[in-house]
Amino acid sequence: MSPKTLYDKIWDAHVAHEADDGTCLLYIDRHLVHEVTSPQAFEGLRMAGRKVHAPDKTIAVPDHNVPTTLDRANAKTMTEDSRIQVEALDKNAKDFGIHYYPVSDIRQGIVHIVGPEQGWTLPGMTVVCGDSHTATHGAFGALAHGIGTSEVEHVLATQTLIQKKSKNMKVEITGKLRPGVTAKDITLSVIGATGTAGGTGYVIEYCGEAIRDLSMEGRMTVCNMAIEGGARAGLIAPDEKTYEYVKGRPHAPTGDQWEAALAWWKTLYSDDDAHWDKVVTLKGEDIAPVVTWGTSPEDVLPITAKVPSPEDFQGGKVGAAQRSLDYMGLTPGMPLSDVTIDTVFIGSCTNGRIEDLRAAAEVLKGKKIKVKRAMVVPGSGLVRAQAEEEGLAEIFKEAGFEWRLAGCSMCLAMNPDQLAPGERCASTSNRNFEGRQGYKGRTHLMSPAMAAAAAVTGKLTDVREMM
Ligand SMILES: CC(C)[C@H](C(=O)O)[C@@H](O)C(=O)O
Ligand code: SF4
User: Fold this and answer.
1) Which one of 1, 10, 88, 344 is most buried, counting C-beta atoms within 10 A?
2) Is the distance from CB of 213 to CB of 248 less than 8 angstroms?
3) Ligand 1 pocket, mutate which of 32, 89, 133 (most atoms under 8 A from CB)
């Protein structure tokens, strides 16, 4: 047998049919659904008089539109459009008999946090969702990627997806990370090195000692941003940490089924002499705590650097850099650590898990914020409950943070949590596009520890100075 990558193995195990031109019909193990990209898909089923083919493998949760304030049960806190989408999901979940975590359920949260938390996401699976950050689930060694609304309808109706295979890309992070450097710094640094198109046409497998050393939470952070690097999906081979995380979760297999699953999971790694179409290697010790300065996730620099000048770039990037700097209101040559921050947002499917909250609380312990506003939005109701149990919520509140309910929140301006024009935010989310967090809002992406450090000083700050 010819050697295979992890991606090849999962792909081959799910091909139901292959056409002459290489187009395949893939079997889908898990279909995650949220309120934004599903209403028309369910409507399509309804009009065709169809059922959901595999309701047991279909899991829905509202996350993008839901307010995160404590009074969110009051429908008036939502815009009309948001309310309609959430109500449609309530009704569709009921009518089609799929698994559902409504706003009132403590398990509700961001779909990419809820899936792994509940044990829906398992190694070797194909996982899809009408959402680009489905890549997150790749941390379990699952082939996970976003799909469009018409594909959502196709998967609902058939539990299959029409796909062409991507190429194989290996991103290796060798050695150890230095103190203060986290999974978020890895994933941003990779995008800084490859650009937002570096992964186009590929599925990335992240490997190397620094990746192995990450917790499951950290691995999810890395895979989450594979999409910002242009890739179809990101993957990490499962290992003992993966099995440990999965074991005992509500929907994880048990007994004989667990043993059978484990036997298959242990075959899920890239063979030594497998073929890679592209390889990128970064040294763990070369990665610094980073922040973004511009309006693309590839605009990444170590916190110790200065705001770049358009002349530092070439070709079309000169104009793009100028536009970014104008939008961000930054002057070339200014130390990044002099940039003052108005708002801090800790949350999102990139960094809204318990480990992220612990890292931020560690920096904030006994300190007060200097920014105008700061909020922590746990990725799920269960993360929130655990953080309360561990005393993290108290640390945040005493520091001056708002302690919110779960949702996508200020990651994107689709709910009441938004930046005002010109407001500058230190954010643990994944996208810094123009207007992403609110009209004319300015976003700097970074790790939870770095965001907490910025909250304390009121400026972009090197967290290593606070350790
Ligand atoms: C709303 C949804 C379709 C979108 C996505 O696909 O990623 C959102 O989650 C985002 O992060 O921009
Ligand atoms: S938290 Fe942000 S990135 Fe993640 S699904 Fe929600 S809007 Fe998309």
Assistant:
1) 344
2) no
3) 133
Total number of domains constituting the chain:
3
Instruction: List CB contacts of 249: < 8 A, sequence separation 6 or more.
Output: 117, 118, 119
Q: Is 132 in the pocket of ligand 1 (CB under 6 A)?
A: yes
- 363-394 confidence digits (pLDDT tens): 999 999 999 999 999 999 999 999 999 999 99
**pLDDT 10s digits, 167-223:** 999 999 999 999 999 999 999 999 999 999 999 999 999 999 999 999 999 999 999
Same domain, 81 and 228: no
For strand 126-129 and strand 143-146, is the pairing parallel, antiparallel, or unpaired? parallel
Asked if residues 291 and 445 have their Cβ atoms less than 8 Å apart, the reply is: yes
Domain limit, last residue, from 256, 286, 316: 286
Residue 68 Cα to ligand 2 middle (Å): 14
Instruction: Tell me which residue of 191, 170, 175, 448 sits closest to 286, measured CA to CA.
Output: 175
Q: pTM for the complete prediction? A: 0.98
Q: Residue 403 in 3-state DSSP?
A: strand
Identify which ligand lies nearest to the alpha carbon of 352. Answer: 2
CATH of the domain at 208: 3.40.1060.10
Spacing, Cα 234 to ligand 1 middle (Å): 17
65 CA distance to ligand 2 centroid (A)?
A: 10
The verdict on 338 and 435 lying in the same domain is: yes
